[in-house]
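Thread: quick sanity check before group meeting

JM: Hey all, I'm pulling together slides for Thursday and realized we never actually wrote out the predicted structure for the chain we discussed last week. Dropping the sequence here so it's in one place. If anyone has concerns about the input, flag it before I start.
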Amino acid sequence: MMNKFISNKKFIFSLLILIPLFLVVVFGKYIVPNDPLVMDTGNPLKNPSMQYPLGTDEYGRCIFSRLILGILPSVTVALLGTAIAFVSGTLLGIIAGYVSGKTGSIIMRFIDVILCFPPILLAMMIAGLWGAGLLNLIIVVGILYLPHFCRLAYSSALKTSKMEYVENDVSIGAGTARILLKAIIPNILSPLIIQISTTVSNAILLESGLSFLGLGVQPPKPSWGLMIGTAKDYISVNPMYLMWPALCLCLTILAINLLGDALRDILDPKLNETI
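JM (edit): ok, ran it. Output follows.
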C-alpha cells in the first residue's frame, strides 16, 4: 500500500504544498516578521521592502504576516466543521442504511431537506441569524456537509449490510453494535476518507467566501477571504495585495483536491479493478 502512495504523482505534489502549509499553521505565529494587527498609518499600501516582504495593506499592516496567520481560521473551520459533518453524517447514514424502515426514511428525508438549499445561501442565512465568528462558521460547515457524508454512508451501509459476512454475523446472534463496528464501518471507510478531502477544500472555500462577504472572520483578525474582500477596493493601487491571498487560496484548494484524487486512485477498489 505504501508503494502506491509513493508512486502516485498527485499525492506527492499535494504533499509538497500541504506539508509547508501545515507547518505554517502550527508555527506561523513564531515566524511572522511583524505583528499583523499593528497599524502603521504612515506607510499604507507600500511596495515590498526588507521590513515588509510583501508590502503593506491600507492600514500599513504587514501583508506577509497577515497572509501567514490568515490560513489559521480557514483550516480551523474546515477541519473542525468537516469532523462534525463526518461523525454525525456517517452515524446517521449507517443507522438509516442498516436499520432502514421508518427510521431510515425519516433520516433521509431530513437530509433531503438540507440538500434543497444552495450551500452558500444556506450558509449566509445561518451566519446572518447566528452572527459571525469561528464557532458559528464551524457549525455552519458541519450542517452544510453533513448530508454528503450521510448519503454516502447510507448507500455504502445499505450495500454492505447485504453481504454474506454481515448476514453470517446476524445469523449467529451478533449484536447491532458489534456488526456496525466490526463488519460495516471498516468496509465503508474508503469512500468516506475520500469525501473528507473534498469537504475540507469546499469548507475552506466556503469560509473564505463568507469572510469575503463580511459574515466570517471579523476585522482586525486576518483571513484570506477577508483580505481578498478588502484588497479588491485597492486593486488599481496595489494589485499584488489581492493576488497574494488569492494565489495562496487557489494553491491550497488545488493541493487538497489533488490529494482527494490520489486517495480515490489508491483506495477505491472498483477503480483499482479497472486499471
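AS: nice. Residues 44 and 58 are 5 Å apart (CA to CA). The first helix runs from residue 2 to 7.
JM: adding both to the slides.
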